[in-house]
Every structure is written in C-alpha cells, then in structure tokens.
TrEMBL record:
Keyword Hydrolase recorded: yes
Organism of derivation: Zhongshania guokunii
Limits of the GIY-YIG domain: 220-305
Listed SUPFAM superfamilies: GIY-YIG endonuclease, Ribonuclease H-like
Protein name as catalogued: DNA-directed DNA polymerase
Reactions accelerated catalytically: DNA(n) + a 2'-deoxyribonucleoside 5'-triphosphate = DNA(n+1) + diphosphate
Length: 503
C-alpha cells in the first residue's frame, strides 16, 4: 500500500439530512418576554418553546406572573399588560413542565445569550443547573447571510417573506425562528446548513466538501495530515497518534474558538500519510514544518533556534552557567558538558524554575546578571572551586539539569531504528550522532533500502553508510525525540544489518 493518500471531493456534495449528525439531537426553539433586560432582577412574563425531536414536534407556551408590575415601555413593546399576567402561574409552578422540554435539548433562540441567561437564573432559583448547548439564530443569520444589512428577527422575516400578525410575543417569535431555519436549510442546502449549525453549537460535523466515506477511509494509525483550502493552499499541517481521531477534532468542539471555526470553514480537502509509529511521525512532521508554511498555523516552538547552557570557569576559579544561542557543530568534539534547550526563552524559564526547585543560586545559573542583587542565600561566588564550595554547587547544578544535559551518541557507527504500526507497516530510520539521514522500507527482492515515499530511489547499505558521513546540522527536536525512543525501539548498528534482520 502506498504511504500517501488524498481524501477530497471534486465538487461540493449535498448530503441527506436524515443521515446527518444533527438528526440525533433535540432542538428546543425558545423565546421569552421579560419585564426588562437584567436576568438578576427582571422577571419572565411569557415563555414559549417548540421542541423538535427527530420527526416529532411538541410545543408549549404560557403567560407567567412576574410578581411585579409590567413597565410601560415593555407593555408598548409586547402588548402584555399587568392585568394579563396577574394570577397566572409563576415560573416555579411551571418549571418542571418547561424543564421537560429543555432538558438535554439544544437551546435555539434569537440573541440566545439573553434567553439562556434568564433561563439559567430562574432555574438556579429552584435548584436546577441549566447549562445547555446553544444555537443563536442571530449568529447563524450573520454567518449564512453576511450581505444582509440587518439580522434582527423582524428584518429576517421581511427578507424571507414570513409575515406574522404579532411581534414580540413568545410563540410568534418562535414561529419566526422556525421559518428562518427552514428557509436557510432549503436555500443553502443541508450540507452547508448542518455544517454551520454544528460549528456554532460545537457538534462534530463535516465540511460540505468532505464526505463521511472519505473520513471513514482515514485510518486510526500514527501519521501526519494536511488540511487544504479550495485552491489547494495549505492551511494546516498536523501530526497524530490516530489520524482519523485528530482530523475529526478539527470539526468538533469549535464553539467559542474563533480560530478553530475559521479554519474549519476553509477546509476543502484532507491529505493524510500513515506512518510506522510515533517516532516516524515526529521525524517526518518536524522536517515538513521546516519547508512548508501553513497559512493558519503558528510556527512550531520546536523550530526556533536551539540554545545550549555552558559551564564557564570564572577568574576566581568558580564555575557558572552561561547561555549560548545555537548548538556547536560537533558537540562531542568540544568535550564540554552542555545542557540543551528548545530556545533561549525555554532555557531561561526552565533554569529559573530549577533554581527555585533545587534552591540554587540564580546568578550562578545565569538567570540574573552579576550586577544584580541576589537574595538566594546560596551564593558562594566569592569562594573558589579549590575549597570545594564551588565544585559542590556546580555538581548540584548539573544534577538539577540532568534531564537536559547532552548525552553522547551511544554507538560508534550509524544505526537503523526499526518501527512498525498496528497495520504491519514498518520503517527503518537511518540515524547517526543523533542526526536523521532518512527513513526507509526494506525491499527483500532488491535487498536494498527504499527511501520512504520515493520507492524509485534504492539505497545500498554501503551507500547508507556514506550518506551518514555528510555534514548535517544537529536538530534539537530530533535529538530530544530520538532520546525519548532510545529504550522503546530496536536500534541496530548498520554493520549488523542483514537481510535476515530485515525480516
């Protein structure tokens, strides 16, 4: 099976809504009329709800006694007078009935923050915690029809040709919302409508250009993937232990995350590449990020300029830590003990944390300048190393930095690291002195290594050895990654590799 696949569609598809994810949810279209705009002290005086549960629709409405006079402004707006609500049930008397409609349903309302706030406050007063998923039809209208000059409910009704004899009454506004939803679904198509609703609510829905069959074809294996726009532009480059799981995360739980929503709306196709395991994912992913520039993705932290911490002898014989941007061309030949970090910022913050954790001198660790006052209580900068104080202190520093100290290459030659995924796909990673020189598949017929992703380029073992003699910059992210897998995978010296070992 070739290692590279593309999941895409030539044209935008319109899928049947009955098979869509929205068909599995209950939607409660709600409108409230209140005595004012503040949920903490104003009261609900009318409520209406239409529950859409699959093919079933139920509705309920009632005037409620707010326990206070209806302000004249509200009377003029809604037509509800104090005499109309006096003696009607209070919210506490209908809350159980209302809860039966709203429980486990997605709340749908125009300017939903208002209605959700009043319901949350009133249910809290009777001991219920109301925290629903929310679909705001005002936001949906702005998303689907940005060219419309106004998106208030009355303006929408006028735009879509829905007329009602009354306005600002609960059930009339619920009917208006239902009319808008029906109009948008028919006008934009089920695929676009469901996708935008899913994004606003935070449901797992697919972009209109990607079918469920294409997503089902993505394996739950380690790999890297690319999200591309309609013109083929690279939007996002990602890595995953399970490709399908990670790709689907881009289309769910995006409610409230504007960056995630913007990305999801631009995705037109998904390209994916299954790899042998998590080491392979890390090696291929970091290399790809160095050459590709996704439009909607920040540059990975691992690609910053690495930093090393050096142990420097002072004039008085003391030893202190000094930071240096970049890594020496050949660390092993320097003979120095170095601590390696992702970048200078990472080095300073981590060393400062270690200073506190191990009660070490910040000045000795290079966290503060010599001219700055140090109040750590552990300073011995005036004592030379020959009396033991400096040596003991620097030994403590090295102990604290154990996880960051450079580990010399544990072999005298290049190695091939074997990795295999759950589907049986395997790779051999050619590594020397913590440098990655390529990943390969063993071809038993040719008895040669084939460059991963380029089966037309065979490589003999002798050629592999020569490749490792080429100068190559040490990449911090590869060094850390390889160290992490040092005891988890099979590392075979190149001179010991045989056709039998490849099997």
């Amino acid at each position: 099976m070739p290692p590279y696949f593309v999941a895409h569609s030539a044209a935008r598809r319109v899928r049947d809504a009955g098979c869509g994810v929205l068909a599995n949810y209950r939607f409660a279209l709600v409108d409230l009329e209140t005595t004012g705009g503040q949920a903490d002290h104003d009261q609900i005086m009318e409520a209406a709800v239409r529950l859409i549960d699959g093919e079933r629709e139920l509705e309920w409405q009632s005037l409620l006694d707010p326990g206070c006079a209806v302000p004249s402004f509200i009377q003029g707006l809604t037509g509800i007078h104090s005499s109309m609500v006096r003696g009607k049930p209070s919210f506490s008397q209908v809350e159980e009935t209302l809860w039966s409609y709203l429980d486990e349903a997605i709340l749908v309302a125009h300017n939903a923050r208002f209605d959700a706030g009043f319901l949350r406050a009133n249910f809290a007063r009777v001991g219920r915690d109301y925290q629903p998923r929310v679909l705001c039809t005002l936001k949906l209208a702005r998303t689907l029809y940005p060219e419309w000059p106004r998106h208030g409910l009355e303006a929408i009704c006028e735009r879509i040709g829905f007329y009602s004899e009354v306005h600002h009454r609960a059930m009339a506004d619920v009917d208006a919302m239902k009319a808008f939803l029906d109009y948008a679904r028919a006008d934009k198509g089920e695929a676009v409508f469901n996708f935008e609703v899913g994004l606003l609510v935070g449901l797992p829905v697919l972009p209109p250009s990607i079918s469920q069959e294409e997503v089902d074809a993505i394996p739950c294996l380690p790999g890297i993937y690319r999200l591309r726009g309609e013109a083929g532009e690279l939007l996002y480059l990602g890595s995953a232990s399970s490709l399908q799981t990670q790709v689907l995360r881009h289309f769910e739980n995006s409610a409230g995350d504007s960056k995630a929503v913007k990305l999801a709306r631009r995705i037109y196709r998904v390209e994916w590449q299954a790899l042998a395991g998590n080491l392979s994912v890390g090696l291929h992913y970091s290399s790809a990020l160095r050459f590709e520039k996704p439009l909607m993705q920040r540059r990975a932290k691992a690609l910053g300029r690495a930093c090393c911490a050096r142990f420097i002898s002072a004039a008085n014989g003391d030893v202190q830590l000094r930071l240096r941007s970049g890594l020496p061309a050949n660390i092993a030949e320097t003979g120095e003990v170095l601590a390696l970090f992702r970048d200078r910022k990472h080095a300073k913050s981590r060393i400062a944390e270690l200073a506190v954790e191990h009660q070490l001198c910040p000045r000795r660790l290079g966290v503060i300048a010599d001219c700055e006052e140090c109040e750590c209580g552990a300073c011995v900068s005036d004592i030379g190393a020959n009396d033991g104080g400096g040596m003991q202190a620097i030994a403590a520093v090295k102990a604290a930095l154990t996880g960051y100290l450079y580990e010399p290459w544990p072999f005298t030659e290049p190695v091939l690291i074997y990795e295999q995924n759950a589907a049986g796909n395997s790779e051999w990673h050619l590594v020397d002195d913590w440098r990655h020189y390529g990943s390969f598949i063993w071809d038993a017929k040719l008895t040669q290594l084939l460059e991963f992703g380029d089966s037309a380029t065979p490589l003999s073992l002798a050629a592999a050895s020569l490749r490792c003699k080429q100068p190559k910059e040490l990449q911090y992210e590869h060094y850390r990654l390889l160290r992490a897998f040092r005891n988890e995978l099979w590392w075979l010296p190149l001179s010991q590799f045989t056709e039998q070992s490849a099997k």
